[in-house]
Amino acid sequence: MEAPDEQLMLAYRDGDAGAFETLYARHRGALYRFVLRSLKDRAVAEELFQEAWIRVIEARGRYAPSAKFTTWLYTIAHNLLVDHWRRKGLTLVDSDEEPVSSDNPASQAQAREGLARFLQVLESLPPVQREAFLLHEESGMSVAEIAAATGTNEEAAKSRLRYALMKLRSAVSDE
Amino acid sequence: MSEDPKVSGRYRELPLEEPPRALDDAILAASRRAVRRRWYFPVAAAAVIVLAVAVAVHIDRDQPVTEMATEAAPAAAPEPLARDALEQAHKPARQRFTPDPRADSSPPAAAPPAENRTARAQAQSAAAPRAAERSASLAKVAASPEQWLQGIADLRRQGRDLEADRELADFRKRYPDYRLSDEMKAKVERRQ
């Protein structure tokens, strides 16, 4: 039976480098995709992905398993994303706006393809909705966990996820 | 919350992006470094101490303990000399290594540079107790009184008077009734 994340993190805190490698291997892909698809800029995404793990490493001495490891990990990533958006002059607000359609003709042509259209809708979701959807899909978080990781209440998290799913469903059913 | 298998299924069809290998390596290396750092400082401190001792021993072996103490010491007083050497080692460095005023008046080439003098003096201070240990080991390796005397004569011939004096004093303590021939006396005793 595989050791739970929290146990691995405690082992790493106590000096077991191998425990971190297991933990990293378990979550690297999902966290990477979460950050990459939240940002669309690969270079920035890689920087933030690395920074998230570095913060895990640096905070190991203070780690106490009061919450799920994934909630902690994605909270770190969420905070980094918020900092990034703030630096770019963007704010995270709840929004039920329609997806912003791309002005790029090539992108619109691609959008005719089912998967490309789905990706386009995903990328055009308001950041908080996209984030809720990605947390749900990539890390399998429940609404309560999404709320905890993004520092909001469950109602807001549930609403964000519902709107995201509604828009993405339209992209699937349009085919 | 209602799940949507079609949305989820479509999301799973997207390329399974993974972090580049170099990024993995950088993060894992950082994680290993962080764990090593826990042990780094105590181990590094121990390594520095070992290195310092090794360097001191090396310098001591390269530079025989001769001139400095011999110059200042009274001629035939081996035991006080050994004690002096030990006391020297426990005095503060500033008192121990007051430069010889004669060195200042000597031509520059004859006097070692100040840094060298200090280094030598420091090495000598650390070495003083070890010189005594070395003398004791000469007695141990000598199978007979004659061999021991021969060793002392060798020290005298090499100009290592301080050690020869100490050895001779030890020898006389160990063999108080041993009569030295005039020839041997000439070899092992310090010339006045």
Structure explained in plain terms:
By secondary structure, chain A is an all-alpha fold. Helices cover 73% and strands 0% of the residues of chain A. Chain A contains nine helices and no strands. By secondary structure, chain B is an all-alpha fold. Chain B has a domain of 122 residues. In chain B, 73% of the residues lie in helices and 0% in strands. In chain B, α4 crosses α7. The longest helix of chain B is centred in the N-terminal third of the chain and has 42 residues. The radius of gyration of chain B is 32 Å and the shape is rod-shaped. The interface between A and B is medium-sized, with 36 and 26 residues.
Write the SSE topology.
The complex is a heterodimer of chains A (175) and B (192).
Chain A: H1 5-13, H2 17-39, H3 42-58, H4 69-87, H5 105-111, H6 114-124, H7 127-139, H8 143-150, H9 154-173
Chain B: H1 5-13, H2 21-62, H3 67-72, H4 78-90, H5 93-96, H6 101-105, H7 114-141, H8 145-157, H9 161-174, H10 182-188
Helix pairs in contact in B: 2-7, 4-7, 4-9, 7-9, 8-9
Give the number of DSSP strands of chain A. Answer: 0
Q: In percent, how helical is the residue content of chain A?
A: over 70%
* Quaternary organization: heterodimer
Rg result of chain A: 17 Å
CATH superfamily of the largest domain in chain A: RNA polymerase sigma factor, region 2, helix turn helix motif
The second-level CATH architecture of the largest domain in chain A is Orthogonal Bundle
Quickly count the domains of chain A.
2
Radius of gyration of chain B: 32 Å
| Unreliable parts of chain B | 66-135
Structural class of chain A: mainly alpha
* Distance, first to last CA of chain B: 107 Å
Alpha-carbon distance between the termini of chain A?
42 Å
Shape of chain B: rod-shaped
Question: Counting H and I runs of at least 4 residues, what is the number of helices of chain B?
Answer: 10
Q: Got a strand count of chain B?
A: 0
Strand content of chain A: under 5%
Order of helices and strands of chain A: HHHHHHHHH
Helix content of chain B: over 70%
Q: Would you give the CATH topology of the largest domain in chain A? A: Rna Polymerase Sigma Factor, Chain: A
Figure out the total of helices of chain A. 9
